[in-house]
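Researcher: Here's my situation. A collaborator sent me these components and asked whether they could plausibly form a single complex. I don't have experimental data yet, so a predicted model of the whole assembly would be a useful starting point for our discussion.
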Amino acid sequence: MGVIERKEREKELRSESIIDAAERIFFSKGFEHATMNDVAEEAELSKGALYLYFHSKNELCMAILQRSLHILREIFELLLNNKNLTGIKKISKLSKLFIAFSKEHPKYYTSLLSYREHRENCPVTGKIIKNTIKENKNINKIISDIIKMGQADNTIKKDIDADKLSLALWGNFTGIMPSSILSEKATLNFNPEDIIKYHFELLINAIKT
Amino acid sequence: MGVIERKEREKELRSESIIDAAERIFFSKGFEHATMNDVAEEAELSKGALYLYFHSKNELCMAILQRSLHILREIFELLLNNKNLTGIKKISKLSKLFIAFSKEHPKYYTSLLSYREHRENCPVTGKIIKNTIKENKNINKIISDIIKMGQADNTIKKDIDADKLSLALWGNFTGIMPSSILSEKATLNFNPEDIIKYHFELLINAIKT
DNA sequence: ACAAAATAATGACCTTCGGTCAGTTGGTGA
DNA sequence: TCACCAACTGACCGAAGGTCATTATTTTGT
């Protein structure tokens, strides 16, 4: 009598396929201009059905955002577990991974930037929010662990505060890049990559032994 | 026959008073939940009249955002013109000013964070957008100038790229802070201030002579 | 095998809100 | 006094997020 289990699996699949559809719609039309009807049509469901799986348009967005964080976490985990690099080299590599992610998954990356916008309009309870927060935690933990590894292998100064630095690096990713993109055409002829690379270089000089 | 001039002044005043009203409404209800009718009522005008002064709700938001940037620019200008501090001390002071601003004008600060959100839904032409971009430029210019002054007075390394560093610092302001606020309750017991201070300390170590 | 119960899904409908525009008001200048 | 014009009004429109009574489908008990 695996009926319940099967139904649960199917429900999960439905849910994922709705997120798939939402991604296609949101990423092509933009969140503002995409409608729930669009998503419903793309998911081959009625609009009402969407609301059996997600409480609101914003929550659906958070589900996509969660995927972004998940992808990033996996990338960073690989880096963390890489045995061939010293701690400081890993931090250096981190900036390249940031940039690579934003290039390979520009839409996922952009979704990260609207965290606040959607988060504010979601109920605090709920699996999606909790998972998103968890992924966020995980990422900070990984970066922090990398720094600590650097301190263990003596490539990063012992007096560096790993947790604070990890938050700072993560903050840069969602701050420098977009802020550079913003002024990109308007002000200077630097691209965001240069800025983030440069910033990492400076920080690396400050923390290396 | 100063009628035309007077009318122009009055129009300008009206426009400002609409922004005043919008601030009160948006800041108290939040942008999403505030309606143009709310703003119209607060401004003691009809909804239609608002659209004689601003093309859209988003543009009205950009007008508020412009005020935020203006305030910040004035703060930074004071710092730039301070004759009693060396360049490197000014950079150090900059982080304190960032934090002070976000504390004294939390709503203005928050408005900065939704730049992208509103910008994307505004026509590229128009005085407001142009002014906003200009303020943005100005701020980056000021920070960059401060760094150059530090290089002139030999408190900052000559090989530092002032323009890149300026963008990095500015990006941190709109990246680290909110990202820290985000995870504030969820993950760690650091407050955003600590993170931004710490980050500045590291950078200052990397750039000072 | 069949009906009752439970679950999934539908789509017409509701409400709200950004934005419009034909019409009104009131100051201006001749 | 009156024609004119800019400022302003507010009823109205269309779009879109969200709801819910109804229908369809699957499961369960006998």
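Model: Some features of this prediction you could bring to your collaborator: The first helix of chain B runs from residue 3 to 29. Chain B has a mean pLDDT of 89.
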